[in-house]
TrEMBL record:
Gene3D superfamilies: 3.30.450.40
Segments forming domain GAF: 120-212
Species annotation: Spirilliplanes yamanashiensis
Protein name, UniProt field: Transcriptional regulator
Classification via InterPro entries: GAF (IPR003018), GAF-like_dom_sf (IPR029016)
Domain of life: Bacteria
Pfam families assigned to the protein according to its UniProt record, in alphabetical order: GAF (PF01590)
């Protein structure tokens, strides 16, 4: 086949092909990982689906509903191009044989439109707004696989990993944020075998390109701006449009963990980063509920938990300087370790990482002034390796050299190096 993203070659009998792929699917499920009778993009997707432990008889889970779904999709960037989707694909949604669906970058269906009888039939496999149709949760399907491979494609009938979906054929194309290039979601057309033709694939691809062009020409209005201060203090301050919000220790940890993963975290993931092996799901949910009351729904989403506004922080400022090789600027922007009083595993791990990266940059700079700044700080005062490097770089006639050498000797004695013991890792 010249186009690997098309489901059927010209002249192929759909019924015969469906039977052939169904047999390959059954062989795959019994352990034949080289089915050979399917397109490589489909076989690769089957492998990912099986690796995620998706059951072939499973339906997609529903993650959002009612008011929560309404609020989430109203705030989603693709809401601004929904009229365009309806204009270009409205005929498909109304003809009683197909459905139009829009999902977000995680595969959650935001809108499913079409004739009422078709939508009712699709409810049996949870092809409804709020359901999670990425490969990890629903197996091979056009919107989920289009997101996984970041390419328009068709999935024909028995190419679907989940048996309840194999009566349908679909074509989908990913949609990107024109400003950042990041995935926003996908546009999908779902119906019968007649969709396995070049026209349906070209249609969804053209619709996706039109949506990206519209978003580029009509950028979203400026959202609330926020800044978080987390370095050198045990309790964070989140400033939103000039209004400071002071957070307690646990909420400060949650804020940072959400900032570290802007695409969102589940409650279980946050719980592990907060409590490690002692995680109690009830405690995590209670803390998140309290944090949501503090920040309000305008700032904090759930399922997954994520911040709804772009938040800059002193942590990202230091990281940006380090990424650009600006050790002096990074050190100047670093008032101290990240939430130093926190023992949350996820925070402590990232605190060590940031501290280590900054320390390595200061050492690599071979700049005595930067090293002196580090050593004068509380967190750097006992850093033997830094004292040794600093001493070696001072001129022999520098009045600071004897003082630095004395401090090296002090630390050598404290760390027991004279007895062959190793100093503690910084």
């Amino acid at each position: 086949m010249s186009n690997p993203w098309l489901a059927l070659a010209l002249g192929t009998d759909p019924a015969e092909r469906s039977t052939q792929v169904r047999r390959a699917h059954e062989r795959f499920l019994t352990g034949d990982r080289t089915a050979g009778q399917v397109r490589s993009v489909v076989e690769d997707s089957w492998r990912r689906s099986a690796g995620a432990l998706v059951s072939p008889d499973r339906c997609a889970p529903i993650e959002l509903s009612d008011d929560e779904l309404d609020a989430y999709r109203a705030a989603h960037p693709l809401a601004r191009v929904l009229p365009l989707f309806r204009q270009l694909l409205g005929g498909i949604a109304d003809d009683g044989e197909q459905m139009m669906a829009v999902c977000d970058a995680a595969g959650r269906l935001l809108w499913v439109e079409g004739h009422a009888s078709v939508r009712r039939a699709a409810e049996g496999m949870n092809f409804v707004p709020g359901a999670r149709w990425d490969e990890e949760h629903a197996g091979t399907n056009a919107p989920g696989t289009a997101l996984a491979v970041d390419h328009p494609l068709q999935i024909f009938a028995t190419e679907h990993f989940s048996r309840p979906v194999q009566r349908y054929t679909c074509a989908a194309a990913p949609i990107h944020d024109p400003a950042t290039g990041l995935l926003l979601g996908a546009i999908d057309v779902t119906g019968g075998d007649h969709l396995a033709n070049p026209h349906s694939l070209a249609l969804v691809q053209a619709t996706a390109l039109a949506a990206e062009a519209y978003l580029a020409a009509h950028p979203a209005p400026a959202r609330a701006t926020a800044h978080a201060t987390l370095l050198g203090r045990d309790e964070a301050v989140l400033t939103v449009d000039g209004r400071p919000i002071r957070l307690g220790r646990r909420h400060s940890e949650l804020l940072f963990l959400l900032l570290a993963q802007p695409e969102g975290r589940t409650g279980d993931q946050l719980g592990i980063d907060l409590y490690g092996d002692d995680v109690n799901p009830v405690t995590v949910r209670a803390e998140l509920s309290r944090l949501r009351r503090v920040l309000t729904d305008a700032l904090l989403d759930s399922r997954p938990y994520r911040l709804r506004v772009r938040v800059e922080s002193d942590v990202t400022t230091v990281q940006r300087h380090l990424e650009n090789g600006r050790a002096a600027a990074a050190l100047a922007a670093y008032p101290g370790p990240l939430l130093p009083g926190s023992d949350a595993p996820g925070v402590a791990r990232r605190r060590r990482l940031l501290d280590g990266q900054l320390r390595a940059a200061v050492l690599a700079s071979r700049d005595p002034r930067l090293m002196q700044t580090w050593l004068r700080a509380e967190w750097g005062a006992d850093d033997l390796e830094m004292w040794q490097a600093y001493t070696s770089l001072l001129p022999a006639n520098s009045p600071r050299r004897p003082i630095a050498a004395h401090r090296v000797n002090q630390l050598n004695a404290e760390y027991g190096l004279a007895t062959g013991l190793q100093r503690p890792r910084h």
